[in-house]
Design a protein that fits this description.
Strand content: 25-35%
Strand order of the largest sheet: 2-3-1-4
Largest sheet: 4 strands, antiparallel
Enzyme class: oxidoreductase
Protein name: Quinol monooxygenase
Organism: Streptomyces citrinus
Shape: globular
Radius of gyration: 15 Å
Keywords: Monooxygenase, Oxidoreductase
EC number: 1.-.-.-
Distance between the termini: 14 Å
């Protein structure tokens, strides 16, 4: 398996405007179930820190799967209006996983 054939991990921090925190929580929470059903999604987790910061952790089988997810209408609508929801720009990281991921490694011969 080449480096580019490995799953893509995305993780980031979103700090909502205080007056929009409940709305952001509802929106992000509503993404969890449908996203986990999308082809190529291996993991999708939403966390909330005690200071109100949201942390997202996603793992996708491929960049193509992540791109398809990012094109979904509900996510596009949220991302297009991100500055109205957040107190500051999101902090996001995209990385290729180096450790093996269950069910993505080729079977042993």
């Amino acid at each position: 398996m080449t480096h580019t054939d490995r799953p893509i991990a995305l993780y980031g921090f979103l700090r909502p405007r205080p007056e929009r925190a409940d709305e952001v929580r509802r929106i992000l929470s509503a993404f969890v179930g449908p996203t986990r059903q999308e082809p190529g999604n291996l993991e999708y987790h939403l966390h909330e820190h005690e200071d109100g910061t949201f942390f997202l952790y996603e793992v996708w089988r491929s960049q193509e799967d992540l791109d398809r997810h990012n094109a979904t209408p509900p996510l596009r609508a949220f991302l297009e209006n991100l500055s109205t929801f957040l107190a500051e720009a999101p902090e996001g990281h995209f990385d290729t996983m180096l450790s093996p991921y269950p069910d993505t490694e080729p079977a042993a011969a």
